[in-house]
Amino acid sequence: MAQDAFRNMVIKRVIVHQVFRRDTDNKVRNPFFSSECVTLSDGFNTKMKERIIKLLGQESHSIRMEIEDNGEESTYSHIVKYWKCKNREENKFIEASKEITNNLVKIQDSRRYPDSLLLCVEGTVRKDNRDFFCIIKAESQDGFLITQEAEKIGLDYIANLFMTKNEKFQKLGMFIKTVDSNDNIPKNVVETYLFDSNTDDSISKAKARYFYYDFLGLNFRNDSKKQTSAFFLETKNFINSIKELNDVEKIELTTELLDYINDPNRMIINAGEFAQKYFSATIKDNYVRFLEKKQIETNSIHKDVKMLGNALKYRKLCFGNLVKLQIPTDLFSEDVDIKRDAKSGETLITIKGMMLNER
Fold first, then answer.
1. Which of 55, 76, 88, 326 is paired with 172 by a 20 to 30 Å CA distance?
2. Is 106 exposed, middle or buried (0-12, 13-18, 19+ CB in 10 A)?
3. Is 118 left (phi over 0), alpha (psi -120 to 50) or beta?
4. What are phi and psi of 116, to 5 degrees?
5. Would you list the DSSP string of 235-261?
6. What DSSP state is assigned to residue 212?
7. Residue 163: is its pLDDT beyond 70?
8. What beta strand segments (E) does 40-140 contain?
């Protein structure tokens, strides 16, 4: 699972370069390249790990991707070239980070891209200490620094702030090598993850695509249809298994699930987001464990409903007396009234409409 991928993180090197907005003639301004890595203090390491794990962890909108561009100048190739170095000296890491930064400069081909920092981070994750290479793009913000004197509180304006808690101004790509070999590293043994807040509303937005596709060389996984289907069907099974809920409450939760996955503006689905909105804390924890046991992603999934077919079009209600009802999903909320009899506990259903015939 994705949250397991980032545990036991050890940061070994970090370097920061600055990329500038193009000039008024849309000409490239050369980036500012650092000549040496950041000094890694305990405090810096702790905060950097916290930031990366927060952006990629279970509660975020990170999504597992797959590598599409493995050409000679691709981001993947620059990372692999570094991984293949026998001693992995600092100058080789800096060289790789500069090549990756140059790729970003080429891709940001208009003035709509503001000044930003590009951070390259390397280290290991997981209990088996797998190599990772993380790329963070942080756009500048402004703000105020509080100053306190004897009898007053003042504010000092700061024009360039980076890596604040506002995730809107940060994008991140994570590459994890899942094999021991440093000689043969095909793209299928490198796990990749993306965080970009611009993917939340519409994954087709160019401002999201330029980063994950054009720059990082990533695309959505081929098994998105399978992942979406598994998320929906197993979440439905979980809802039906909740002992604390009665039948009407389970039907209401399934309605919320259908609305969630049928939303035409939602291109990313996220189990943590769904659970946070509709489940109590105890049920949420049980739900996460349930999905993990079923090996279903608990971070974001690129929605693809092609495999679900009639499961999204019709609601099928089954009763203990063998009565069955099939109702179109888009008519369910308006034309069906469901109540629970307080005395008998029986489920009472009223269907609004004229009966036409019997089939």
1. 88
2. exposed
3. beta
4. -155, 160
5. HHHHHHH-TTS-HHHHHHHHHHHHHHH
6. I
7. no
8. 63-67, 116-125, 130-139
